[in-house]
Amino acid sequence: MIRLDIIAGARPNFMKIAPIIEALKPYEGKIKYRLVHTGQHYDEKMSGSFFRELGIPSPDVNLEVGSGTQAEQTSRIMTRYESLLMQSPADCCLVVGDVTSTMACSITAKKMGLKVVHVEAGIRSRDLSMPEEINRMVTDAITDYCFTTSEVANENLRELGHGEDNICFVGNTMIDTLLKNMDRLKRPQVWDDLSLKEGHYFVMTLHRPANVDEERKLAELIDEVVLGARSLPIVFPVHPRTAKVLKKLGIQSENLHMIGPLGYLEFNYLVKNAFAVITDSGGITEETTVMNVPCLTLRDNTERPETITLGTNELVGTDPSEIAPFMKRLHEGQWKKGQIPPLWDGKTGQRIAKLLLEKLG
What is the span of the domain harbouring residue 86? Predict the structure, then answer.
């Protein structure tokens, strides 16, 4: 029996592990998993309904590390996960994505002699100012089996010296979750409140420090988006980090509608039916690519280049003056036609479950 720890530390992690847990059901007699929530991020949306909505079982363990600096969180995750492993050992630690929990648990597991599996390995932004990039680099350096989303990620890992036996091109579990729930997306209340119409509004999300921490920069970005929207409604679910800055600025516009965070099914309903999405999130660029919705990414780099080379995403940058030309192309119907990257087919979880048995059995 393979004893497998599955680690999640933030809401997107749970969306990535949901298909893996579902796919492990046929292997119950061979793989026994323990779902470990590090408690890295507190999120009021992470209620029992969130787990039921996505078919995720409640975590077996919550390390309850809470908030803090990067170093504080890392140290608490490591010491608490180490304590768990000492009390109740495992054979393998599976981590996903690039949050602090990903790096901290992989280091702890490796030092205690466990095999480490990294789902979404090999992606790179080449931007060392991003904490996530450090997490990716450290995790991949000690990972035994790298499960990847693209050929670009495979090549990044080859450059690091990983052999072909260690690199497993499996696809994208976030897309498994999206495709499974596409028929279950829920119309949020804001749809009726604003009398939204399919293809006639924008969705915007902003949370990265480069965009939201500097008040003047954030104000200029939003001003350019409002101007470029040409009176179309902009639905802006506001990240708590961004809300603090916006409150100081007092930004208002007739077509800018700032709302609270939405659940997974409601948010993706808005994305699916939007004219376009404006974001600085990596995960959303993957979802818009699959849903064939134009996406403008307000970042200077991306760790998901396939959403640009193949998908509907364009890298706009963080300079507010660069937004207008992209908005013009959008309104003139000149946005590129995207395609879905290879293996983003809803079967990634199944491939991962099969490989876990092959590699660890």
Answer: 2-172+344-360
Give domain status of residue 180, yes or no: no
Residue 257 annotated to the active site = no
Give tens-digit pLDDT for 146-182. Answer: 999 999 999 999 999 999 999 999 999 999 999 999 9
Separation CA 57–CA 37 (nearest Å): 11
Residues 104 and 207 in one domain: no
Same-domain status, 106 and 191: no
Among 162, 207, 239, 331, the active-site one is 207
**pTM of the full structure:** 0.94
Do 211 and 352 sit in the same domain of this protein? no
150: its two tokens: 């693209």
Structurally, the chain folds into a number of domains equal to 2
Long-range CB contacts (within 8 A, 24+) of 41-44:
41/9, 41/10, 41/11, 41/67, 41/99, 42/66, 42/67, 43/10, 43/11, 44/261
Domain co-membership, 130 together with 227 = no
What is the rounded distance in angstroms from the CA atom of residue 306 to the CA atom of residue 73?
A: 31
Q: Using one digit for the tens of pLDDT, what is the confidence trace for 3-54?
A: 999 999 988 899 999 999 999 999 999 999 999 999 987 665 666 677 888 8
Q: Residue 353 belongs to what H/E stretch?
A: helix 348-360
Residues in the chain: 361
Residues 198 and 326 in one domain: yes
What phi, psi does 199 have (nearest 5°)? 75, 15
